[in-house]
Amino acid sequence: MAIAATPVRRGRTSFAPDPDSPFWPTAGIVLLLAAQCTMIVTRAVNWDEFHYYAMVEHFRTGQLPTALQTFHVRLFGWLPAAEDNVDAIVAARWVMFACELVTLACIYAVARRFADQRIALLSVLAYLSTGYVLQHGFAFRTDPQATAALMVALAVLARAPLGDRRGAPLALMAGTLVGLSGMITIKAVLFAPTFLGLAWMRLVDDGHNRPRTVLAFAAMAASAVATFALLYQFHAADLSGEPVAAQTPAIRGAETTTALVLSSLDRMFFIGVPNQLSMMVKGIFLAPITTVLVVATPIALVRGLPPAAHERIALAGLWFPALTLAFYENAASYYYAFMLAPVVVSTVAVLGLATRRIPVVMMTAAMVSLTMGVFVMDNRSVIDNQRRIVNVASQLVPEGSGYFDHADMLPRLIKRNGFMTPWGMQAYRDTGRPLYREAMEAAPVPLLLANWWVFGDLDSDRPELFSPRDAEALRENYIHVSGPLFLAGRQVPDGSAVRASEFLVPGPYTAHGAPLILDGDLLTPGQTVHISRGVHHLRSADKGDARLVWGTAKQLPEPDDLNGPSWVAL
């Protein structure tokens, strides 16, 4: 039984649609989608987008270490043909945008099972007008892909004729999508209550066709399990199992899929105050109307809206992902585009009441105007700085060289440290080992891309985030070049006496600025010399400040050429 809130008839001019017309939420959706289209090409690439793109590059070169949560690399093997990875990620965003459109269509389809057209469109608008969804709904991550697949499956479960002969093929298709979503991201399991709630509703609805419906459920479940198993075997068969870099111990130790799953699950959930509490609070301010709708929904369900108990159970299941904010660890801003898709469907119970008192045009205007503020405030200059960083780094360091950074911003180099998320850094510290120094001793690492706040810890006299030996090695072996770029090298101030320095990065070094003395030999500006790993002696030639910089480049960018933010706030 659909929630059909018959609106109070309101006056209108002959030139405008009725204040309660479906036209208004449709127009709001179109406007926000148009805004998103501009953000696809102007919004800064988020660090995790670089990370997911790097997986595509590593798969191309046969260096992807695990099959779990990496299936997207097979869908985006065409990306490395782009001129640089920023352009490649922008291209991938258009595919993510298409996934978002599928999600929006499915939100509408499922909502129409419970409500009339206006309310269903408002539930779509409630999703799209959430600030985090506007910013991250098209992001190159696994979330938009998995969300689209899961929402199509939910739409089939809610609306398809499962009780007749057409039910089995549709159920098999839905199960295939569920299995695919599990391959894309293991957090697809968080949608389980949404499927259970809708399944109960269908059992009640289908009455005498219940046996066929049960068979359709069984087909869906079997298809999901079989699809996941087959795709995993297919995907894993081509992987070398060799990691692309010296990863964190948590990743290195997960030599089997079971170990990796258990490691991931161990870090997925928390008890107590969430680490992402600040993002949760920010999300409330960016989407106050959607927040009110979500908070009010369980109250409406408890008070008997809609009247049918099996529909309330279904809506409660759809609302359940909102509770994951209380125990799911990685509920950052991009998670909301995944979590909210079924949740906004459940808000039809509240929207039905609201539209009896508030004209649809006013609700639309309020949602859109608040969200357009998020759109207007977006920093559109950062993506150009990211392009400059990528291009300059690629010119200074040849492909295949090692480097340190946060999220694999330069995937055609070899990242020699682990992913610098809170999980990754905690795993690094738990070892008690100088993993950065060990990486430098194992292979040349000429570039340090200080594109994360964690690197600021190296400026402290008593670093807390890096081991003392790592901090010493990083400070001693890298010098600032421009913006976040640090190259292996040494500063030799004018008049400085001879000093011994341990070079952990062997390779070609070029003198810049002024002459200097290396191991008793005079080096003039522009002169390149090969330096082996080990202790060498440097001093000033008393003719000005000099620098000895890794590489053969005769000209380096100015220190402030790459200044500016590398990221925008989540």
From TrEMBL:
Main localization (coarse): membrane
Topology with respect to the bilayer: Multi-pass membrane protein
GO BP terms, alphabetized: lipopolysaccharide biosynthetic process
One Pfam short name: PMT_2
Keyword terms of this UniProt record: Cell membrane, Glycosyltransferase, Membrane, Transferase, Transmembrane, Transmembrane helix
Alphabetized PANTHER family for the sequence: MANNOSYLTRANSFERASE YKCB-RELATED, MEMBRANE PROTEIN
Listed name of the protein: Glycosyltransferase family 39 protein
UniProt organism field: Croceicoccus marinus
